[in-house]
Amino acid sequence: MNLHLECLTALTPEIIVVGTALLVLLADLAVAREKPLAQRIKLTGVLSCLGCFLAMAWLALAPCSAHAAMLAVSPVTQWLKEWLLLLTVFAAVLSWNARFTRHAGEYFALLLLAAAGLMLLVSSDNLLLIFLALELLSISLYALAAFDKSSLASSEAALKYLLFGGVSAAFTLFGISLLYGMAGDLQLGVIAARLRAQAVEPMFYAALVMTLVGFAFKLAAAPFHLWAPDVYEGAPTPVASLIASGSKVASFFVLARILLTAFPGARGMVSLGDYLPGWAPVVAVLAAVSMVVGNVAAIVQTNVKRLLAYSAIAHAGYALLALLADRRHALSALLFYTITYAVTVLGAFAVVGVVEAGGRRASLADFSGLSRRAPVLSFCMLVFMLSLAGIPPLAGFFGKFYIFTAVMETAPKLSLLWLVILAVAASAVSLYYYLQVLKQIYAGQPAPSPAWTRPDVSAQVVIVLLAMMVIVLGCAPDLLLGKITELLKSHPF
Amino acid sequence: MLAWTIYISFLGAAVLMLLPAGHPRPARWTALLAALAGLACAAAGVADCRHHAGFGAFTDAVNAPWIAELGIRFHLAADGISLVLVLLTGLAAVAGVLFSWNVENRTREFFAFYLALIGGVYGVFLSVDLFLLFVFYEMAIIPKYFLIAVWGSTRREYGAMKLAIYSFVGSAMVLVGLMAAYVMAGGRTFDLVELARHANSFPPAFQNWAFIVVFVGFAILAGLWPFHTWAPTGHVAAPTAASMLLAGVVMKLGAYGALRVAMTLFPVGLHTWQNTIAVLAVVGIVYGALVALVQQDFKYVIGYSSVSHMGFVLLGLMTLTQIGLSGAVLQMFSHGIIAGLLFAVVGRMVYDRTHTRDLGKLQAMNLSQVLPFAAMTFVVGGAASMGLPGFSGFIAELQVLVGAWQSFPALAILAAVGILAGIAYTLRAMVKAFYAEGAVEARDLPRLQPITVPERAGALLLLGATLLVGLWPQLLLGMITPALNSPLMQPLWKAGPP
User: Fold this and answer.
1) Residues on chain A touching B203 (C-beta within 8 angstroms)
2) Does residue B497 carry a pLDDT above 50?
3) Model confidence over B198-236: pLDDT tens digits?
4) Residue A69: φ, ψ to 5°
């Protein structure tokens, strides 16, 4: 009885979000059916945001720490869930003026279910529940990606996402089943203890690689990245922004949790001339390939959304590096990096959305001369692009810097230098394509038609807010980093 | 006081962004005020430092914790060497605004990027925490790109991107070296003085690769041959003020970083690579001068002359003698002023009026009669550039040559040949552009807008500076010498090959 109560308390935020999803469906059905579409979207959108805020308030005011059944709720996960909800709120606000769907209620309900999946994902330390949360998240996102029914690209994106996602889920599940066969349990802590007791079999590595492959799909790490450009380009922009931001943060966190909690002993080694099998070599290869493929492929892109997709692949590579750092820094570097990245990429997508709302597409030429028409928006895009490129004093710079330093410090010192050099070189290449976007915005001539329509206020507020976060977190990384280290000090996970 | 040089520049950029678009006048005055205030703060900072710790040690401007987890501090301080360069930045900034008085296209944004660049440059010269130094170093890249890509001329997008990529690759190399030094020193601090204390415990093998990576990373921006190719294209593509800043202060960022970071942190590596880099520097001196000798584009002449003159800075650094290093630092100041002046004459006074930089076409215009002030400025600036006694360049290059003579006599002779070639290309450009014999009758002279007051003021400011230092070098040497004798620099003189 007590256990159930504890579970319920721990799950309250998720329950609030799911409840809101149902409420949104109901409200759309009962109250808003007869209203014009714009009003329905506003109503359901505002309702969803309120639900998210309620859940955030709960998380902030009723901090709880529980290790009940399959849940592992600690201050870190509660805090991370607040961020995930915030990202969802931003994505929802960006949908307030959506014109791609008539199904307002269903759209926001799915968005909230995806948020619930995100939250569940970070609060579980049981492989089965992790898998279920991952599926809840993925299935909501598949449906959301297909939401622009008038667009062929959207359907194609969703189908591609579904097929790739399905295969990756199969990999993950297979890996989990092998692990279960060896350890006889699905709880991460128990698996770690059992594996420590017995000799490592080859089967273990097969299981490890399978699980990693599944996650690599989810994170769009090369060579499992092929879905990303099409989905980013085809899916409705707010959905793409959530796929690029919230989904990344949660997946990285849970991957770190699995690797660092369940397999701390099977880390392996990848320094030059010194090799031990384990997950570190796999992660290192994934990271290296992602950084190279993402950055090189991004150079030739002419569509900004595809460019962001390839840059996302590269950034997945940088973030994977964090997993290789010593335990002291790995998680804080990863969290700082993924959160600031999520904020930045969400902002970049929001700007793309505003340009699209003006009747344009998202090709580079459509951004030409934007600075003359929308100076504030252009400045925000400047901030986002430069942060992604890793130019100080923006958040993206410190994120990268912290990861690189942490990886260099990994014992024995400088053993992973080759990987850092590769990452820094890849990052130097990346400036080229980010500058291409900015060149269009600042140096290009504005195209005469179609006439520039003023972006709606809500989107502008979100963009300015996100840009300010990127600047502030870049100038004062301690605001975020201090919080992360403080949380991690008391509760490792 | 010194920290305000940075704050005022960024504040000025922010204010400019908030001004209404389409009104150039307030934007110009805001920029001029910010630049003047920066110069005033720099001068006040010099007085302040003289009064307090002297020029031999770092005088703190700000020292506050910044990122506690990694031991990074917001630490701004200055010694004699940085003060010289801060003064140079202040002078170049004011002159650059004066020579951009005629920018009509998107004036507000132009000066906003301009001041952001200046702020970054001040920041590099004043940072003692190397993370902070790196932050400012990278912050300077982006405004440069936009200044050239938006307001530039010949092949501006190519020149801008080339410069940005070269700078970014250079800073990536610096970053790797800095992080490695941080990790090797125990991962607790980025403070230059603290890290330099660890320099002895860095293993030689590590120092050998770290030194060359960091040094070349910085020296790319200083125009080290064969990584100099961004410089001529960048200078030519840039608008006047941007080429003045590029040659005047941005190239000094590279040289300063090479001295402050690479040479100070990795003295053993320095001794390993000393001869190689000295050879490259001399190649740069001679090569830059010879290429300048055959250019048809007036601006390319000055662009390649910058590569040549920066070669003296790098050669001076590699002599590892007191006199050579002091010459190198003085040359940074001197070349910053003179190159700024020459670019102003070419870009603003001549090109903005005649719309050509082709020496053949200029030859037909008899500019010495049409624009006597421009001709006079170029003659004096050219004399300074050639290293005539009485100008700052003379003392600087003489010191470098004396230092080089002590360390590598053969190279010193080659460098002296470079000076001769320098005299040749300066005279050639001067004659072709201004004093071509009687090509045009007096009545056929082109009608050009007369030289304006801001231009005169800017030219006099820079001429005054180079003359003042030339006649009274002790003014700057009094700041440089104590800084070279400071404990921070001791490993440079001592560490020989193991």
Assistant:
1) none
2) no
3) 887 888 888 899 999 999 999 998 888 888 888 888 888
4) 50, -120
Cross-chain CB nearest to A393 (options B139, B165, B182):
B139
- CB-based contacts of A342, cutoff 8 Å, min separation 6: A83, A87, A244, A245, A246, A248, A249
Mean pLDDT of chain A: 88
The fraction of chain A above a pLDDT of 70, given in percent, is 97
pLDDT confidence of B240, banded at 50, 70, 90? confident
What's the confidence (pLDDT) of residue A138?
93
Can you give the pLDDT at residue A333? 92
* Interface contact flag, A435 B69, Cβ < 8 Å: no
Q: How far is CA A413 from the centre of its chain?
A: 30
Q: What is the mean pLDDT of residues A250-255?
A: 93
Label residue B121 exposed, middle or buried (CB < 10 Å: 0-12, 13-18, 19+). buried
How far apart CA B2 and CA B40 sit, in angstroms, is 10
Which residues of B fall within a CB distance of 8 Å from A401? Answer: 131, 175, 179
Average pLDDT over residues B488-495: 75
Q: Which residues make beta-bridge pairs with A124?
A: A71
Is residue B364 over pLDDT 80?
no
| CA A443 to each of CA A484, B142, B157, B463, B480: distance values in angstroms, whole numbers, following the listed order | 40, 13, 9, 34, 42
Residue B144, both tokens: 């440069």
Torsion of CA A331, A335, A338, A341, to 10 degrees: -130
Distance in angstroms (rounded) separating the CA atoms of residues A363 and A472: 30
Average pLDDT of chain B, as a whole number: 87
Q: Across-strand partners of A73?
A: A66
Question: Which band of pLDDT confidence, cut at 50, 70 and 90, is reported for residue A449?
Answer: low
Query: Which residue in the set A391, A393, A413 is minimally distant from B183, CB to CB?
Result: A413
CA distances from B275 to A413, B319, B432 (A): 30, 9, 38
Mean pLDDT of A379-402: 92
Tokens (6 digits) for B494: 């001592």
Query: Do the beta carbons of residue A319 and residue A445 sit within 8 Å?
Result: no
| Domain boundaries defined on chain B | 3-494
Question: Dmax over Cα atoms in chain A, in whole Å?
Answer: 71
Domain ranges of chain A: 9-124, 125-490
Give the model's pLDDT for residue B314. 92
Q: Kindly state the helix (H) or strand (E) to which residue B73 belongs, with its residue range.
A: strand B72-78
Chain B contacts to A (CB-CB under 8 A): 17, 21, 66-70, 109, 131, 134-136, 138-139, 141-142, 145-146, 149-150, 157, 161, 164-165, 168-169, 172, 175-176, 179-180, 182-184, 187, 206
H, E, C per residue of B124-161: HHHECEHHHHHHHHHHCHHHHHHHHHHHCCCCHHHHHH
Q: What is the ipTM of this complex?
A: 0.89
Confidence of residue B496 (pLDDT cuts 50, 70, 90): very low
Q: CA-CA distance, B333 to B399, in Å (whole number)? A: 14
pLDDT in tens, B431-475: 888 887 765 555 566 677 888 888 888 889 999 998 898 888 888
Backbone angles phi, psi at A285, to 5 degrees: -65, -45
Could you tell me where the DSSP H helices lie in A220-303?
227-234, 237-244, 246-257, 279-299
SS3 A71: strand
Show Cβ contacts of residue B407 under 8 Å, excluding neighbours closer than 6 positions.
B278, B318, B319, B320, B321, B324
φ and ψ of B297, to 5 deg: -85, 125
Dump the DSSP string for B273-312. HHHHHHHHHHHHHHHHHHHHHT-SBHHHHHHHHHHHHHHH
Dihedral angle at the C-alpha atoms of A248, A253, A254, A256, nearest 10 degrees? 120
Sign (positive or negative) of CA dihedral A467, A470, A471, A472? positive
**Bridge partners (DSSP) listed for residue B60:** B77
